Amino acid sequence: MATTQERTAEQDLPYDVFSRSCPSRGTLEHVTGRWGALTLGALYESSLRFNELRRRVDGVSEKMLSQTLHALERDGLVDREAQPTNPPRVDYELTALGREVAGRLIALIQCLEGRMDEVLASHERYDAREARRSY
Question: What is the pTM of this model?
Answer without folding.
Answer: 0.83
